[in-house]
Amino acid sequence: MRHDAFWLTTSDAAPVHVQRWFAEQPPKAVLMLAHGMAEHAGRYARFGAALVAAGVELYAHDQRGHGQTAQRGILGDYAVKDGWQRVIDDLAALNHHIRQQHPRTPIFLLGHSMGSYIAQAYLMQHSCAVSGAILSGSNYQPVSLYRAARQVARFEQWRQGPTGRSALIDFLSFGSFNKAFKPNRTAFDWLSRDPAEVDAYVADPLCGFRCTNRLWMDLLGGLQDITPLEKLAQIDARLPLLVIGGECDPVSDGERLEDLAEAMQRAGLRKVQLKLYPDARHELLNETNRDEVTAFLIDWLQQALDSSAKDTP
């Protein structure tokens, strides 16, 4: 396996840091990955190695305000203006770069947690650019909840400023996540049953930080936008979609992943699959059963490739 990194110039000329895991031989597919909030692309090296061994190349970028990209911006902040659309456009720029390198290779998308919401928005605008998508550690809630939460973020932005980092928002968003896993060893036990993985997250200076009020305004506005069925219906109905997560993930409580899959089906999307793992928490790729999860994802990608080949005249 080979690994490299580069800076990608995006639609507004902002640089985004991208990591790539690849082999010498041409891949049968390429996966682009949108990571979650308060983490970064470098955490997916193990997954990248498994993908490369299966003939799939991985591109993962540090989203705006995250990882190495934050060195040329503000940690925990998308952009001064139009942050939500900017992070969607970054995926489009990455897809364009991949297509230049691999003109005829199928491209898939994996979005985890925050990245799963950005992935949905991307699919609503660019379904034709990918051959399938995986939504991991996602969620589905009423628009009214996101609207109310955005009012809190608006107040905190007024009180602290756009780049303030609200303890109230942090508490309302993540404060209850650890309750189900008492006695708690760390503030992030909800991420995984594997203590070593949790400790690595806690020790990583590019993980676990509070995001800005402006990012929360952008994100909650984006969630309002992608949730209605008429918006989900903008995704290509023929696109293979996998909704995957842990039944003990407090982000979704398991059942809200079922709600997401059901909403997609009600919106007319015909190839939606749901996969839930009992006892697993938020980060399936860092869970105690991560090898099982990784094997399943590789099998799913192969099935999507096979299905696409059958559908091609």
TrEMBL record:
State if Cytoplasm is listed as a keyword: no
Any coiled-coil regions, as ranges: none
Q: Which positions fall inside the Serine aminopeptidase S33 domain?
A: 25-289
Q: What would be one Pfam family of this protein?
A: Hydrolase_4
**Source domain of life:** Bacteria
Q: What are the alphabetically sorted keywords of the record? A: Hydrolase
Q: Does the keyword tRNA-binding apply?
A: no
Signal peptide feature range: none
Return the Gene3D superfamilies for the record: alpha/beta hydrolase
Query: What Gene Ontology molecular function terms does this protein carry?
Result: hydrolase activity
InterPro entries registered for this protein in UniProt: AB_hydrolase_fold, Hydrolase_4, MAG_DAG_Lipase, UCP037442_abhydr
Indicate what this protein is called per its UniProt record.
Lysophospholipase, alpha-beta hydrolase superfamily
* Native source organism of the sequence: Pseudomonas kuykendallii
